[in-house]
Design a protein that fits this description.
Elements: E1 18-24, E2 30-35, E3 42-47, E4 51-56, E5 59-60, E6 66-67, E7 84-89, H1 93-96, E8 98-104, E9 109-118, E10 121-134, E11 145-147, E12 153-157, E13 179-183, E14 209-212, E15 217-222, E16 229-233, E17 239-245, E18 260-261, E19 264-265, E20 282-285, H2 290-294, E21 307-312, E22 324-329, E23 335-340, E24 346-351, H3 353-360, E25 367-372, E26 378-382, E27 387-392
Parallel strand pairs: 2-25
Antiparallel strand pairs: 1-27, 2-3, 3-4, 4-5, 4-6, 7-8, 8-9, 9-10, 11-12, 12-13, 13-14, 15-16, 16-17, 17-20, 18-19, 21-22, 22-23, 23-24, 25-26, 26-27
C-alpha cells in the first residue's frame, strides 16, 4: 500500500553486515563530506565553524581548502545549529571553478554565496552573495544544497525556528521558510528562476519555491541513478520522517508541516485535514530526549530525536547493499537502511546500529551527516570529530 508507514519495531530482513573504516579524526564539529571534483581520492570535510579541510589518499592536509570563520557564526553552546551548513560544487566546476556555500553569518542571517577556485586555491575575496535573508530564531536553518541532473540548485530552508512554527511560515508561500528552493545559478546575475518552477506565475508567492511544508530538512539527496529526491525532515517532538519525490515531478507539493508531524495531526490530539498534503513514506518515533543528548547521556533503547538523511547507495563495493537508502539519527547514533521503489513504497528495513558500533569499537556516536564520494561510496560523520567510510564486513 502506497505511503504505508513503517515503525521501527518491524522485523528486519537477512542482510550481509556492514562495517566502517576510520579515514580521519580530530575534526572540529564536522557536519558534511563530499568529493573534490576531478581530484581522485580527495575528500572535503566541512566543519561547523566555517572551515573546510581535505583528506587526500588518507592523509589530512594541514592547509584548509576554505576558511571563512571571519564571516560565519561560531556555535556558542551545545546544540547551537548555526554556522557553516552546506556546500555544493557547480556541475561545470572543472571549467568555471564555482562552488556554493550555505552558512549563517555573524548577524544571524542565511547566506548562500559562490566562491571561485582557481590556480589550485580558493580566492576568498571572490565571494558573491546570491541570496541572503535574516533568520528569525536560532534554530531550524536547513542548509543542505544539491544540484540535480538538470543543473538546478536545490536548497533546503528550515521553518525559521522556535517551536511549532509559530508564525506558520512553512505553509506560507510568500515566505522562503520551511521550503525547498530551486534556482538556476547559470547566470552572471545572482540567480534565475526556472521557467517551470511551480509558483512562477503567481505574483503573491515566492517563485524560488519548489515544495513546502517542511520543519527542518537538515539533509536531502538525489538518487545518483534515478534522480529521485529523498528528504529527511526533523520532527518536533513525536515523529521523524522521510519524504520522497520522483524525478519528473512538477513540484508544488505540500509535505504537511505544521498541519502534520509525520503522518499525524499537529498538535497531537487535534483534528486536521490531510487534503492537499503528501504523506511521508517512512516515519519513526521521536522518543529520545534531546537535552540528554546535549549532555552526553546515552539512550540506547530509544529510536531518536533528530533524523539525519543519507543517500541511496550506488557504489560498487557492497553489491547486495546496492539501491538501499541509508539514514540514521543524530541523538542515538542509530543507522538504518531500506529500499524505496519507484512509487515511493518502502521495504527491506534493516537496523545496522549494532554492527556499525561494533566496527567503530564505540558504544555511541553522534551522526551529524552522511557523505558521498565521486564513486558513490558512503561515509558517516561523527560530530565528535571522526570520519568513517562504510564498507562490507570481512
Amino acid at each position: 500500500m502506497k505511503n504505508l508507514i513503517f515503525i521501527l519495531v518491524l522485523f528486519s530482513f537477512l542482510f550481509s553486515s556492514l562495517a566502517v573504516e576510520l579515514i580521519g579524526s580530530k575534526f572540529d564539529k564536522p557536519i558534511y563530506l563530499l568529493s573534490m571534483p576531478s581530484q581522485e581520492n580527495e575528500l572535503l570535510i566541512v566543519e561547523q565553524k566555517g572551515v573546510i579541510k581535505t583528506i587526500k589518499n588518507g592523509k589530512k592536509n594541514k592547509t584548509p581548502f576554505l576558511d571563512i570563520t571571519d564571516r560565519v557564526h561560531r556555535p556558542l553552546f551545545p546544540g547551537d545549529e548555526r554556522g557553516f551548513l552546506g556546500i555544493a560544487f557547480d556541475p561545470n566546476f572543472v571549467k568555471n571553478g564555482y562552488f556554493y556555500v550555505n552558512y549563517i553569518n555573524k548577524s544571524d542571517s542565511t547566506i548562500i554565496s559562490r566562491f571561485t577556485y582557481e590556480n589550485k586555491t580558493v580566492n576568498h575575496d571572490s565571494e558573491k552573495i546570491i541570496l541572503a535573508f535574516e533568520q528569525p530564531y536560532s534554530n531550524h536553518n536547513g542548509g543542505c544544497m544539491q544540484f540535480d541532473k538538470e543543473g538546478y540548485l536545490f536548497i533546503s530552508v528550515g521553518d525559521g525556528g522556535s517551536s511549532g512554527d509559530p508564525e506558520n511560515r512553512a505553509q506560507d508561500l510568500s515566505s522562503l521558510f520551511g521550503k525547498i528552493l530551486r534556482i538556476d545559478v547559470n547566470t552572471k546575475d545572482e540567480y534565475l528562476i526556472p521557467n517551470d518552477n511551480p509558483f512562477v506565475k503567481d505574483s503573491n508567492y515566492r517563485k524560488e519555491i519548489w515544495s513546502y511544508g517542511f520543519r527542518n530538512v537538515w539533509r536531502f539527496s538525489f538518487d545518483a541513478l534515478t534522480n529521485d529526491m529523498i528528504l529527511a525532515d526533523v520532527g518536533q517532538h513525536l515523529w521523524e520522517e522521510i519524504n520522497f519525490e520522483t524525478f519528473g515531478s512538477k513540484g508544488g507539493l505540500n509535505y504537511g508541516w505544521n498541519i502534520l508531524e509525520g503522518n499525524h495531526c499537529f498538535p497531537e490530539d487535534t483534528e486536521c485535514s490531510l487534503e492537499g498534503t503528501v504523506a511521508p513514506i517512512f516515519e519513526y518515533p521521536n522518543n529520545a530526549n534531546y537535552a540528554k543528548t546535549l549532555f552526553g547521556i546515552k539512550q540506547p533503547n530509544m529510536d531518536g530525536c533528530s533524523i539525519t538523511g543519507g543517500y541511496v547507495y550506488r557504489g560498487s563495493k557492497i553489491k547486495d547493499f546496492y539501491g538501499k537508502y541509508i539514514f540514521g539519527d543524530y541523538c542515538t547514533g542509530k543507522i538504518w537502511s531500506l529500499r524505496i521503489n519507484k512509487d515511493g513504497e518502502v521495504a527491506d528495513f534493516y537496523n545496522h546500529t549494532d554492527e556499525i558500533l561494533k566496527s567503530m569499537n564505540k558504544r555511541e556516536f553522534y551522526l551529524s551527516s552522511f557523505g558521498q564520494d565521486e564513486s558513490n561510496e558512503i561515509y558517516l560523520i561523527d560530530y565528535n570529530g571522526d570520519i568513517y567510510k562504510i564498507v562490507n564486513e570481512d
